[in-house]
Amino acid sequence: MIQFIIGKRSKNWLKIKVENILDAVIVGYTTGAGEREDFGSLLVAAYHQGKLKFLGRIGTGFSKEEIEEIIKKLEKEKVSTPFISLENVKLDLSEGREAIWVKPKYVCEVKFLEFTEDMQLRAPVFVRIREDKSVEECEIET
Predict the structure, then answer these.
(1) Which of 72, 92, 103, 104 could disulfide-link to 77, CB 3.0 to 4.6 Å?
(2) Cβ atoms of 66 and 85 closer than 8 Å
(3) What sign does the dihedral 30-138-125-90 (CA atoms) show?
(4) The domain 20-137 is classified under which CATH number: 2.40.50.140, 3.40.50.10330, 3.40.1260.10, 3.40.50.10490?
């Protein structure tokens, strides 16, 4: 028989995290450091109330091959200014890193824990590029 003691951790407790999945529009990427100096993270958004809303950065979940494929696609789509409003956006780029903006043409699938109060993705993880989805299909319903 398993005993659960309230208020005390034991090996009998199991923590389960709920994962959410979202299709997001890639609006840019950041440069990185070390082996990933060409790529640090994806900058993503989704439609909310008819406008693209910035959702944050995705820096994990990529294989080396996926990074190479993503950079190859996005380098062809670079623009000088973002297609989204950066009002109230905190990019928090480390020294020497930069944001590179692209045309909102590609969609990626993202796993994340939840939305923060300011509608940013908490603990986002890249899953895959979605060739079968259009940018217009990336919508957040609240």
Answers:
(1) 103
(2) no
(3) positive
(4) 2.40.50.140
